[in-house]
Structure formats: structure tokens, C-alpha cells
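ASSEMBLY PREDICTION REQUEST
Request ID: AP-0331
Submitted by: J.K., bench scientist
Number of chains: two
Total residues: 518
Priority: normal
Notes: Please return the full assembly, not individual chains.
Input sequences:
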Amino acid sequence: MKPFTYERAQSPADAAASAARVDGAKFIAGGTNLLDLMKLQIETPAHLIDVNGLSLDEIETTPDGGLRIGALVRNTDLAADTRVRRDYALLARALLAGATGQLRNQATTAGNLLQRTRCPYFYDTNQPCNKRQPGSGCGAIGGYSRHHAIVGVSDACIATHPSDMAVAMRALDAVVETVRPDGSTRSIPIAEFHRLPGDRPDQENVLERGELITAVTLPKPVGGVQIYRKVRDRASFAFALISVGAIVQPDGNGRVALGGVAHKPWRVEAAEAEMPRGARPVSARLLADARTTHDNAFKLPLVERTVAAVLAEAKG
Amino acid sequence: MATAASVAIGAAASGARAEASTEVAQPAIASPSMANVSFTVNGVAQELELDTRTTLLDALREHLHFTGSKKGCDQGQCGACTVIAGGRRIVSCLSLAVMHQDDDIVTIEGLGTPDNLHPMQAAFVKHDGYQCGYCTPGQICSAVAMLDEIKAGIPSHVSATLTDEPELTAAELRERMSGNICRCGAYSNIVDAITEVAGRQS
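STATUS: Completed
Returned structure:
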């Protein structure tokens, strides 16, 4: 790790102001992703702002019947919350499908959204990577790309977003609440939060310099059968090859979002109109304009078959 | 958490920053920065002045000489460094020591002693739940805290429902212990050891 100075933030607004003021500052909460990357010197912050002392670890019911999840709520606590288990099963299932008991005890809601890709070329500092070092090229394109994205890709980057939780948040129409260095706040719909790689894959979300996530809110429960199906190389503790998060209503309508296929959780609202007609038309709309490699073309049929399995399971 | 004033601590706090020397224009500080932290380990208060980069694992092993917790992968993948912080199992390699102000840490040394084994330690011995033993302190700390998670009703990926009490099946234990790798492959005996302790508890 490179040396860094350290401070314990006193309030969300102070944390944001400090992050904007100090060059190379980063927030740290759970640290499970950031410290891993710092050891490899992929992340080299000059200053860490520890936000763990901020009181952002409550889950509150909102006036409209939804939930407001504090940014620091640990993955374990979010999955264990009785309201989440009852009304947002998709979220609980997605959280429980990710990482391990230890990591879920450490990792936070906001940190999960900000996870960086597990692309092996991003992790290998001997390889080119436009995300790690803009302009250096992409080792994955033309390289070993079995795990990589099939939709929303660019000539600069085919990395995926690794989060399971974010897939559920996308299907549940979550909203990301933030505070900016000037103390102002804003609400960002999750659909607009993560970016596609384009020619700047190093820019992964729309947060501004110093902007701090304070909470994630969920609208009131939408009911339906909620299923998160994750397909991976090991039965536990592995990132998704692909995952399907679905909410299926009794009339066959609903929502579908995918993980492991793009630089962000992938949802195409137009595809959802096809749900009563089955997995094939849904997948065709979800994966329209897919651009696969020799190694990851298997994800196209895998998505369709997994959507089919999920829709069948929902019918009971 | 700490009530201490927000301070940029240590030798490098004067703000001296080296010019970025690579294309990755991330500013760096020139020299190590020190910070103070105090927490309890196995019930005993500890005060440390540490390089901010020190992980909780390195603070425990290198500074406090609790060498039971092991450094395996140092990436949060193997679980050999698992300790119990504030009652919860965590991987101490992916946590900075300075993030644990006022925390209560329990390591394998705090669970039992050679003369007075924790029931989980005794069960691992009885069931031969190890071969080389390198992963064992992490396995045992993880297993002890994991059973508390089951007792608290926290579901897992393999739980049939999200609302019923989790069952103490081998499948549940294996899923919940997937953050602890054993290269000797003692898994079936580890499951037996945990099952015995869980049965005794329930």
C-alpha cells in the first residue's frame, strides 16, 4: 500500500467537503474492495476519510411505505431485516448470493454500489486497462474474456459490474441519496447512477468529486414472486457468470434485471412487456445489440435459459 | 465510534505530496503517516500508534503478537484471518486497524486455551477437523460467530425460505462457512465438528 493520511469524518457534509478539498481523498466504509485494491496499488489514495462513525446505519420506513436504507447498513443487516425479507425478497436473496458471511458483515450498502470490476486485466497491473490507466488499452478485448460483458460494451472496455445487490436495486427502482461538498443533497435514480464504459471506463458512476452516498431508498413494495437466480462456477463465494433478478406478478407481468452481462446492472424496461410471452422474447429484447467474444458468447443462451427457469419457478 | 476530533494524523500531515510519477495521476504522500487507535483484544485494552496502512490482522499479529490469526491470501478470500469484532466475524486482512477505535476484538486466543478449550476447539480436535491447522483458528472463529448468526435467524443463500428459522443442515453450514478455505480438505470433519457444537447449543 502507498502511505496515506487518515481522518474520522464527523458528519456526512464534512466528509464530502473534506473529500473535495484534499487531492486523492477517498471514503472508506467496509473497506473490503478498496483495501484489496490498495494492496495491489490499483487504488492509491493519499487520504482516507473513515465514514464508519457517521450515523448512517439505520433502515427506516418512509412516509410512502418504502424503505430508506442508510449508506452504512451492512449487507448482513440489510438481508436480515424483517421488512426486507418480507417485502423485498429479491434484495435479500441477491445480498445472500454474494460474497461470504465475513464479507457481508463488513460490506456496506453504498460500498456495494461502488464496487469496482473483478476483470482480471483490471487487477493485473502488468496488463493494459483503460479503466485502471485511461488510454493504455484493454487486455480483455482479444484476451481471456469468459466473464466479460456482452451488452453495453465499448471498444475501450468490456468489464462487468460485479454486484448482486445492485441488480436487485435496479429491478426495485431504488434511488441513491447523496450529499455534495457544498452541503446540497440530491436523489439519483439507480437507472442513472452507473455509467456504461464508452470511452471513459474509469468513470463508473455519476457521482461528482467529493459526493457521498448517504442512503438508498426503495419505493413501497410491489409484491409478486421475487427470485434471484445466480449462475456461477462455484456453488458459493463466486461472482456471477450471469444472474437474473425477477419480480413476477400473478398475471405474468413484472420486471427483470440481469447481472454479469454489462458495466452496470442491466434492465431494459421494454423487454418486460414480453414477460407473459416467455423467456425467448424477453431475452431477445434484453440482449438486443449484444456484442460477444469467442469466450463469452455462451452467456446469450445462458441468459435465456436462466430467465426461462426463473419464469417457470415463479409460476410454481 | 471515536469521539476524537477529525484530524489528519501524523508525519505526513503537513501535506507534502510527491508529483505523480506515472500516467495514473493520483497524488501520493511522501512518507508513512502514523495514527493512534485503541480497542480491546480478548478483553484487554490496547493502545497503539500505527502506520495508517496497518491492517487489523497485522496489528494483531505483528504489534500485539496474537499470532493465532493467520495471513493466508491477504485478500479476503481464504478466511484464515477471521476474527470476531463487535460480536461479528470479519476478515481482519481487509480492515484497517485504525477503523476499529473502541471496538472489541476476539481472536482464537480469546476463545479458549490449551487447558480450557472452547467447545468448538474441542469439537475440531475430536472430529479431526484439520490437517495442517493453518486455517483452523479462522475456521473456529468463523464457526463460533456463524452459529450466533443462525441463532439470530439470519437466512443464507441455501435457506428454503427467508422467513422460517434457518435449519442446521450440512448444506446450511457449508454455505455459511464458504468464506473459510481448507487446502487440506478437512471440510467434512469440520462440518461434523460444527454440527456437534450446534446440536449441543440447541
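REVIEWER COMMENTS: The longest helix of chain A spans residues 299-315.
SIGN-OFF: pending second reviewer
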